[in-house]
């Protein structure tokens, strides 16, 4: 059996514990909390406050940061990045994608880039690259025979401007497997229009 055929047979071990996800950590209100965190980031992109207001807002936010720091847990126990029921698993640092389809054929996700992701006229290219990297993590996770795959390189071609504030469709899939090397491709579309495409190499490793 070649390595490609082997991988076609799918994953032979369970997903690592950290990748199995959950829908309870942080409680039922956690999704709304993370959405508010995103809203803070969005709103911060469009203000030019006077010094007094900047200081007041800083004080308000400092109180919130202190409350969160007081309830910090080890990262492996944190709700963010673990909640499979929430956009981007409740990780506020990721563009808030929603998984539409996921399996050995790859992953399809809907993404709305927003104010926080704005570069100048369109979504910042780095955020598009981040989206592709993350989705490639999903796609490779379902094709490695065990463990995890790390990004060795990831190249994005920006084909047309990527708008914010409207649903876009991303697709990422493993095109070829050669031993531990997974060649990954991806596309991002606004309707029929190609915004960006991606080529990446992921390497299978025993764990994240
Ligand atoms: C909670 C989940 C809810 C449920 C959801 C369900 C499923 C989904 C679950 C999880 C998915 C979710 C999240 C995943 C998220 C995101 C994924 C992001 C992934 C990352 O963001 S991860 C961080 C960035 N990433 C790094 O931090 C890597 C640093 N780096 C290294 O760790 C090493 O560098 C490594 C491991 C890459 C290789 O090291 P190594 O020692 O293992 O292997 P080695 O060097 O021997 O290379 C073996 C062969 O690859 C070729 N090769 C290597 N590198 C190459 C390159 N750059 N270009 C061309 N070829 C290359 C060699 O030439 C050789 O080729 P050959 O065999 O032909 O000679």
TrEMBL record:
Domain Thioesterase stretches: 123-193
Enzyme class: hydrolase
InterPro entries given in the database record: HotDog_dom_sf, THEM4/THEM5_acyl-CoA_thioest, Thioestr_dom
Enzyme Commission number(s) of this protein: 3.1.2.2
Catalytic activity of the protein: octanoyl-CoA + H2O = octanoate + CoA + H(+); decanoyl-CoA + H2O = decanoate + CoA + H(+); tetradecanoyl-CoA + H2O = tetradecanoate + CoA + H(+); hexadecanoyl-CoA + H2O = hexadecanoate + CoA + H(+)
Subcellular location: Cell projection, Ruffle membrane; Cytoplasm; Membrane
Topology within the bilayer: Peripheral membrane protein
Domain of life the protein comes from: Bacteria
Keywords: Apoptosis, Cell membrane, Cell projection, Cytoplasm, Fatty acid metabolism, Hydrolase, Lipid metabolism, Membrane, Transit peptide
SUPFAM superfamilies: Thioesterase/thiol ester dehydrase-isomerase
Family: Belongs to the THEM4/THEM5 thioesterase family.
Name of the featured protein: Acyl-coenzyme A thioesterase THEM4
Organism expressing this protein natively: Nocardioides dubius
Source taxonomy: Bacteria, Bacillati, Actinomycetota, Actinomycetes, Propionibacteriales
